[in-house]
Amino acid sequence: MKKSIFAIFMLLLALPCVAQANYDALKAKADKSYAEERYDSAALAYAEIVKAGESSTVYYNLGNCYYRMDSIANAILWYERALLLSPGDSDIRFNLQMARSKTIDKIVPEEEIFFSRWYHSLLNMMSVNGWVWTGIVFFVLFLVGLALYFVGKSISLRKCGFYGAVVLLMVAVVCNVFSWQQKERQQNRNSAVVMTGSVVVKSTPNDTGTDLFVLHAGTTMTILDKGMKDWCQIRLSDGKEGWIPNSEIEII
User: Fold this and answer.
1) 191-251 belongs to which homologous superfamily?
2) In what order do the strands lie in the sheet with 191-194?
3) Which of 90, 152, 242, 248 could hold 158 in an S-S bridge, CB 3.0 to 4.6 Å?
4) pTM for this model (two decimals)
C-alpha cells in the first residue's frame, strides 16, 4: 500500500516536468519551422502550444506566421489576443498596425477626449501581473512610510512619512484598480474580428434586414449584444452599428 502511494506521489511530481518537456519540444519545433520559413508548419505547432494555455508570446508568434502567409484576418486575431495579455508590448502593437494597414476597410475612429485617451494609455502600459506587482511594491512602500510616521524622531520626518504613506497608498489602490480592469477585459471579451472575405451588416438580426454596410476580413469591432442565437449586435470604432452573423466573426 505504501509503495503504491509513493509511486502515485512520484508520478504526480513528474507530470509537470513531462508537460514542460512537451512544451519545450513543441516550442523548439515551431521556432525551427519559423526560422526555415515553413510558416504553415510553425502555425500548426504554435496552435498546439496554445491548447496548453494562454501566452502572449505564442499568440504573437502565431500572428507572425499568419502574417507571413498573408492570412491577414488570422494575423490580426492573434495579434489582438496577444495584445490583450500584454497591452504594453510595443512590438505587438507595431505588427498589429502593419497587419491592419493591409485590410480593405479603413475606419477612422471617433474622436476621443483627452482625458479618456490619456487614461487608456496609462491603463495599457502594463498587463494584469504588471499592475499587481507594481501595486504590491507601492503598498510595501506605504508600510515603510507608515512606519516612518510612527517611529520618526522629528516632526518633519513624521510629516514626510504620513503624507508619503497617503500618496503611496493611493497609487497602490490605483494599480489594483487597473489590474482589475485588465482582468475584466480578459475574462469578458467583447471584441471580434471579421474572418470571412466580406459580410453585410444588417439593421436587424435576420437575413431580411436592411443592408447597412459591408465589412471585410480583418476588421475589428465591439460586440454590444450576444443574446441572439446566430447573430450579434456590433459597433465599429467610428460609431456605426448593426447586426452580423456569428459565423462570420471570431471573438478576440
Assistant:
1) SH3 Domains (2.30.30.40)
2) 211-216, 198-202, 241-245, 231-235, 220-225, 191-194, 249-251
3) 152
4) 0.83
